[in-house]
Amino acid sequence: MRARLLAGAALALALGVSTAYAQDAQAPASTAVVVGEPAQAPPEAAPVAATPDGVSPDAAAPPVVAAPPPAPPPRSRPRPAENTDEGGLWGVSDRAEQDAQQSGQLERDPVLNAYIRDIACRVSGPYCGDIRLYVMNRPFFNASMAPNGYMEVWSGLLLRVEDEAQLAFVLGHETGHYAENHSIETMRTARARANAALILSIGLGAVGGGIIGDLIYLGTIASVFGFSREKEMEADMIGYDHAVRAGYDPTAGTKLWNNLITEGRASENPDVRRREARASVFASHPLSADRVEALRDRAATATGGGETNRERYRAAIRPFLDPWLRAELRRRDYGQTVIVLERLAAHNEDLGVIEYYRGEINRIRRGEGDRERAIQHYTNAIAQPDAPAASWRELGEYAARDNRNAEAAAYFTTYLERAPGATDRTLVEARIAQLTGGGQ
Ligand SMILES: [Zn+2]
User: What is the 261 CA–ligand 1 centroid distance (Å)?
Assistant: First the structure.
């Protein structure tokens, strides 16, 4: 048991210190000690199908079939000896990576992976060959790069960055921590001052599981192992310099941090709202005002503009909006999700999906006026070409509850037409029969 707790603490350390933007997060799935070979890199992803800027996402362009990608550059760092503290940090990073490979939340789509990896490579300086990317469908703003090169990017982050330039800044920041060995430095500092009770409590949090375990775990990590403000600023500057050198918009980082601050103010959690300079109360890396200011000052010295590649970014994440927003709802912080949806709707794109999820917020929340708002949003959704089929099902439910039986049956019928593989088909067919069979 003791070994298990300590393993949890070690894993917490590896993940905690390398997580630049844990807005909230989940405890690692496993704390089992497995001594083994380093985790294998994921299979090489296929080349990204480029979507030229300015092309309407609805225009059905044939997929671009590119030549096989060149072999990635070699790793820049040798594996440290196992009996060193750095070797230990690599070991726990390897185990976390194995968990990621087996996770049901892993997004394996090769086009998405190649696209994000390409951006990471452009802003990582000489470390492109070190990166092994894992995109996870987890609804929190989080990216991390472990000392062994294992990088995670979460859907909660991808929903919140507005364009490629903002993503480039975050990934540049992350590889900046990696380049400067911030994890190992922070681990050595933490070890020098950490008290054993706190480290053990992290192990307990990790072992406890569930959302309460996660929160204890994150809160403790934040108080013990967060990167210093100096390291965060340093990573910001590296991220900025690398992104601007790669041709991206110099104001991207400032915009992104300001957006997160705005979202924090909209939270339904009073603790998050009160600390408005933080993305969340659980952030192990507070977004201090001087950090944002330093980035703004740096951007003020920029001599020219840069690319945002907004349309291309949106085209890359478009196929994932529905499942990622579904996961986002599980956070149950609708104040923040409303802001996320507002930002996604800023260019009047994907309004079917966005209006559906606005409807979902109101349907689930059940506050005063929410019922009417839900119906309005679903009604808006079905006027759009990209409305999820479930929009018709929800409208059918509301109509049935109001005894508008013919209308309800029509909505349910459309739902089944649009979702031929619906898992609730039998149930919905029975509802239709009941609604149209003469019985009330
Ligand atoms: Zn950071």
Answer: 16
Q: How high is the pLDDT of residue 373?
A: 98
CA distance 33 to 186: 23
What end-to-end distance do the CA atoms of the chain give, in Å? Answer: 60
Structure tokens at 276: 């408005």
- Residue 138 has what pLDDT? 87
The 10s digit of each residue's pLDDT in 407-434 is: 999 999 999 999 999 999 999 999 999 9
For 317-436, the fitting CATH number among 2.40.50.140, 3.40.50.12780, 3.40.50.720, 1.25.40.10 is 1.25.40.10
Distance 100 CA to ligand 1 centre (A): 21
Gap from CA of 87 to ligand 1 centroid (Å) = 22
Least confident of 86-90, 183-187, 325-329: 183-187
Considering the entire predicted model, what is its pTM? 0.79
Rounded to an integer, the average pLDDT of 177-199 is 70
Q: Which contiguous run of DSSP H or E holds residue 59?
A: none
User: Measuring CA to CA, which residue among 35, 175, 182, 44 is closest to residue 94?
Assistant: 35
Task: Write down the domain spans for the chain.
Answer: 2-49+74-300, 317-436
Rounded to the nearest whole angstrom, what is the distance from the C-alpha of residue 438 to the centroid of ligand 1? 63
